[in-house]
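S.,

Sequence below, as promised.
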Amino acid sequence: MIVVGGAVAGGVIGALARDGDDRPAAIVVAAVDRGAVTLDVATTGTIEPATTRSLTFTVAGTVEAVQVRPGNRVVKGQKLAVLDDTEAIDDLNDARTGLAEAENRLAAARTVAVRATASATTCARPGRTAEPAEVPTVQVGGAQAPAVEGRAATPCPTRGYPDTGSDQVLTAQQQVNRAARAVEAAQKALDATTITAPIAGTVVAVEGEVGDRVRSGSTFISLADTYAMQVRAAFPEADAGALTAGQTATISLADSDDVYGAEVVQVDPVGTSDGTLVRFGVLLAFADSPADLLVGQSAQVMVRTGEVADVLRVPSTAVHDVSGGSGTVLVRAADRPEERVVTVGLRGDRYTEITGGLEQGDQVVRSW
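The prediction came back faster than expected:
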């Protein structure tokens, strides 16, 4: 038999007289009120950079200088490592010389073409006769007579069209184009002997030292974007089913009372098992990343998976036997608590939403 006693500030203190036990047990009742119901899931995570770049030399060579080491913070455009560039500089100079020579040949070909075009205007077209020149005369029988009847037409250098040197200009222009591409390639090869930071961040690894011979395309420096950090966490499958991108979260760091806002940006579609428990990876981004975070630093993660506002609610400990959207509560009656079946909505960490069976102001046993 259950008996409820008198009221006390903050609730009703009573006694539960159980079968075979005459000792009263103090109980507390709570009034049904309106407010928010929230549900969070929590785990631990690890700080990691949002972006990590693998930086390489795109040409082979010997390392001449390394200006950074792991842990150094760098700014965008900062020089990080350099190869011996003697050969690359020589190649660039040779390419520039070749370009200058090709441009000189093009200029000469254009000059010849202009002169050829000018002289072509004085040659006769096929089938035409040139204007007669001054014809010399001879004395014939006391009179002057022309020595020849006329001057033959001057033929054009080519059949049908004058030779203006256009073929030579085209050839010279092609040589200039090839030489310009050679200069561009040599400049890129010289630039490739230096690694510069594409972003601001922190150097996390250096794979070589001065004097090493490196291959083209092999990673030499790993650079992390530590100015945009994120948290990688793993949730058990019981909680992961309620997680989705866009949910709000909070992150707290070890040895700190500060709490930072965050958002779920990715939930792994496939879990991993340690033989006992299956966990799903979750990636969270800081709303405003704090300064001086360390790669690998541990963090406490809490993700809000459910929330309703301004609803009828009771303490979650007051609702038992929840199944299929209903549960049981002990409602304070005139002389004794009575069980009542209620319909429930969101079952939160502290409160459970009541959608039917109770009214605001009803009193239920807080824990039983």
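The longest strand covers residues 298-315.

Coffee later?
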